[in-house]
Every structure is written in C-alpha cells, then in structure tokens.
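Before our next group meeting I need something from you. Please put the record directly below this note.
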Amino acid sequence: MDHDEYVIVSRTQTLSRIQWLFYGLGNIGPFLAIGTTWAEKRIGFWLSFTVPCAITFFLPLILLVIYRRAIKVRPDGKQLSQAFRILWIVLKREKWRLFTYSDAWDAAKPSVLPARDRIILQEKSLTWDDGYVEKVKENWAACKMFFFFIIYCLAGGGIGVITSSQASSLSTDGVPNDLLWNLNPITTVVFMPILVYGLFPFLRSHGIRFGRVARMTVGFLLVSVSSLYGALLQWKIYRTSPCGYHATGCETGTGVSHISVWVQSPIFIINALSQLFAWTAAYEIAYIQSPEHMKSITLAALMFVGIFNNAVSAACAPAISDPYLIWVWAVPGVANLIQTAYFYWYYRHFDAQHSDLNT
C-alpha cells in the first residue's frame, strides 16, 4: 500500500464479508457428495460412508492448528438467565403485545417496575438496568425475523423427502436420484463471489442500498418460485406417468414418466439463489445487530428454526403420498408468498432505520 493511499475500513462490511465466507465455505464441503453419490450407485454404500468418515478424522488436527489463534470467550450463563427473566416479565405483563409493540419491553425496566415487584426482584438479585432491557429488546427484534423462516424452509422442498420422491418418478437414465441436490452447493459457490464482488459493490457505487430486509424478501420470493415450479412439474409427472396420479413407486410399464430428471434442476438452482439472499442476510442480522454477549443466543435461535423445520419435515413424511403431492409443493409456496408480503410490510422501514448495516 502506498503511503498516500487511503484505506476505508468498515467494521460492518468486514463482519458481513465474514458471514458470506462462513456460508460459502459451508457449501464447499457438499461438493464431495457428488463423488459419494456416484460411489453409492456404482460401488456401494460402504464407500459413500467411509469417505466422509475418513475426512472427519482430520477436523481435530485443523482445530489444533488454529487453537492458539482463535479468540476464546468464557461462557457466561448469566446473560442467558437474565434475558429469559426479562422475557418472562414482559410476556406476563404485556401478553401478546410483546410481538407487535416495541414499548412492551418497558414493563421489564427497573425504572418502570412497580415498587413491590422491584423489591421482590432485588431479593432475587435484580442485576439489570434499563439499558440492558434495551439490548434484550434489540436481540428479540432480530429473533422475531427468524420465525418467517419456518414457512420459508417448508417452501424450499423441506417437507419430507419430496424432491427425492419426485425424482424417482422421472427418467434418470442412470443418474442417481439425489445427484441433482449437488446443484445447490455448486450454485452457491458460483454465484456467491458474483454477488459479493459484483452485484453488491455495483449497487453501492450507484447509491442503491440493497439492505438485509430487501435481500431476505428477494430470497423469500425466489423460494416460492421454486416451490410453485415443483408443483407444476409434479402435475406434469402425473399427466405423463404410466400410473397417473399414483406415480410414486409405479410398476406399470417403465414405471416412470418420460420427462428427464434434469428438469428438476431449476428447483435446486433457484433454492440456492434464494438461500444466498435470505440466509446470509439472516446470519448478518443475527451477528451484527444483536448486542455483545447475546450473539450466540441470536444465532442459536436462527439454528433452532432449521431444527424445528427438520422435526416438522420428519413428522409430515409418512403423510406425504400420491395423489396429493401437487399440494405438498403448492401450499407452502403460496403460504410463503403471503408471508413475504406481510414480512416486507412489517419490516419495510428496517433498512432505512439501520442504514449503517446495509450492504
């Protein structure tokens, strides 16, 4: 760097870039699934399980290498217990106003608490002040956004094994049913640098602030497109399958539709693009907007959405069967469109109010 050169360092942009890097690296690993998928079909399941197992043994070595350079923060359970106590007070006093009115959090502030309650809490160690309640309020504002990801995940082919079931009714021509799933990480790795180093800097240079709520909205819309495309494809499968509306597990004739399994590609590609916009924005909000010492709580709340979605998916799997698979695709897609409209309306001022967080 020349001595007369100015370098602008932005903490927000740096943290945002770290979140993108985290998400991108998480999608490089699934590339190996391409090889294990073919190994499963051509050689056997033993090889497809042995390869990732062998790679896993190298992870402790990597942790040992970076151990000294890693920043280690001592766990503090006090933060979590205080946050839950504040949340309980607000919920008990304000009921459902907690979800719609930001002033509901005033109910937990020591300056607002009635004298009797304040004395009782002091006996149980009232250790927070009004400022800490505001921090919990900020954390809750970030966590509320994550509720929208429940329907979003279901719309992204998250009910049961709907995508694999659909693929089994298409002509594979020797291609493994679950090979197309690898288009998701491939799309992510290809388009991530295009967005980070191309689209977003271009928008910034032209004064266009493509904030996190805007990105999440685009991601939600894309996943609905993917889901509705899946519904249309499922309808076409029913029309062309030898078994009609009982295409899954069909044993009549060829047992499958003449449509190639590769027509499923847009589902995975659009899903990946959707995740690039929606999930990365959620990660950034979870880490950047949440107060210090509460980032792990916020990220845990975001991860819980994925766990909850997996539970719903597993619970619904036995009920997913012909001839209702069109609805399995269409209903979450339409529901997600409706919630996207509400999401954007509810958070329409968020990007303007948090302009310092925008990409």
User: Anything to note?
Assistant: The radius of gyration is 24 Å. The mean pLDDT is 81. The CA atoms of residues 120 and 126 lie 9 Å apart.
